[in-house]
Amino acid sequence: MKNTLAGKDIVSINELSKQEILNIINVAKKLKTSPKNNLLKGKILASCFFEASTRTRLSTEAAMQRLGGSVIGFADPGVTSFKKGESLHDSIKIIGQYVDIVAIRHFLEGAAQVASDATNKPVINCGDGANQHPTQTLVDLFTILECQKKIDGLHIAMVGDLKYGRTVHSLAEALQHFKVTLSFIATPSLQMPDYILGNLKKNGIKFNTYEKIEQVIKKIDILYMTRVQKERFADPAEYNRLKNSFILNIKTLSGAKPNLKIMHPLPRLNELPLEIDKTKHAYYFQQAENGLYVRQALLALLLGKI
Ligand code: CP
Known about the structure:
Layout: H1 18-33, E1 44-49, H2 55-66, E2 70-74, H3 88-98, E3 101-106, H4 111-118, E4 123-128, H5 134-148, E5 155-159, H6 166-174, E6 181-185, H7 194-202, E7 206-210, E8 222-225, H8 236-242, H9 250-253, E9 261-263, H10 284-302
Parallel strand pairs: 1-2, 1-3, 3-4, 5-6, 5-8, 6-7, 8-9
Helix pairs in contact: 1-5, 1-10, 2-10, 3-4, 5-6, 5-10
The structure holds phosphoric acid mono(formamide)ester.
Phosphoric acid mono(formamide)ester (CP) binds at residues 53-56, 127, 133, 136, 265-267.
């Protein structure tokens, strides 16, 4: 397929067509089986992380380096002129002059759009506040296809912090390209935002909201767990009240379909105990590994090298 992504930004998953999403997944599949060590030789990525990350930052940086490119950047904005009060706009405008592509994670919704407006180099949103995490969604779609061999026809349940969870926001938006059934399991105060439910309705996607995993466990193909995110709560007491609302256990899984796979963008807390790792349903470590190949594909496509 022709590369329509060269030179573009990935700020929101909504900007990608179904064809573009499938193309990224296909390129990632090829790179997983046939590594290309020199594809991005001479190219430089700026990795600008204003908020904590393990998987997204390190897999993006590893992806660039495994394709022969190099990386500059920071994992702590406290070592940059952000500390002296420099605006995000000015920082990214300058950084864009030094590199070929920029990856940014920020604690504020809309920060990736500010970065995209500040530079003409491709910008990849690696998570902006509670808004979106489009590269995680590409990893998630790649992983669903890998473990279920299809997306159409699946019943996918998302559990936990659906209000603030940027991974589930992007995933629910992207799944509107497919014929899926969605179940959203959360306490009423942490349910999926109305604007996403409205989009699903408009696009004819079947969905329901629930308060217990047990209500859907027998029907689902993917159980997408998420962490209740302490850093998004203004009121610590509210976080403490909700943090252990959904803890998966082996007994709950006893009624699951044999093909059920459990995914989680990670990091995990109590919601996904270690005992789940040993079950045939656990697929979150493979999901995290896939971040490397999907981000390789994205870098290569945005830089016009595929
Ligand atoms: N999935 C994810 O975004 O993980 P990190 O916060 O560690 O990057």
